[in-house]
Amino acid sequence: MGMSPDDLSMKARTLIHEADVLIGGERHLAYFRHLPAEKIPLHKNLQRVAPLIKRLLGKKRRIVVIASGDPGYFGIARILINELGKQTVEVIPNITAFQAAFAAIKESWDDALLLSAHGRAMPRLASLVREHDKIGILTDGRNSPGAIAKRALVEDPLLASVPVYVAARLGAPDEKIHRCRLKDLPG
Q1: What is the dihedral of CA 107, 116, 141, 41, to 10 degrees?
Q2: Cα→Cα distances 56→13, 43, 108, 139, Å
Q3: Rounded to whole angstroms, how far apart are CA atoms 91 and 78?
Q4: 3-state secondary structure of 12
Q5: What band does 112 get if pLDDT is binned at 50, 70 and 90?
Q6: What end-to-end distance do the CA atoms of the chain give, in Å?
Q7: Would you say the pTM of this structure is higher than 0.85?
Q8: Cβ distance 129 to 169 under 8 Å?
Q9: CA–CA separation, 71 vs 64, rounded Å?
Q10: Cβ atoms 179, 163 nearer than 8 A
Q11: What average pLDDT does the segment 12-34 reach?
């Protein structure tokens, strides 16, 4: 989906509008509440999506799973392809959070180390911060920017003055880009 429905390609819009069933996060489904398709919200039940889709496909339903950014980068594409097969799944990538964030801060990202802390353990960060000029990290509630900064500072307090950006709600009307030093993030 990208950051918002405005990012959707014509192909993606057509598939969504012709779908019998839309599956996605509540925020994504809310954008399409006006459509007649059945809406099935995804929470943290990603492992239950493929069996549900298999049942719906048996009923000849047209199904679209809506995800943010690139579903192939630690996204739902891996689960769907593994469970349903490459011949059944069509992946239509879009703008990723990394693309949107680096564009918002007006920095290239071809030389950045990209990591996901969304639902997974964080590696030791201090050495990565010292080795790379740019690091992009997808975060979540547990691995928040503050928690990540706190961990990096425990590993190496000399990183306190490293400049960081936090991009929140990218593409939304209330998008926020915050620039500070690593030491300012915890709390």
Answers
A1: 100
A2: 21, 19, 42, 32
A3: 10
A4: helix
A5: very high
A6: 31
A7: no
A8: no
A9: 13
A10: yes
A11: 94
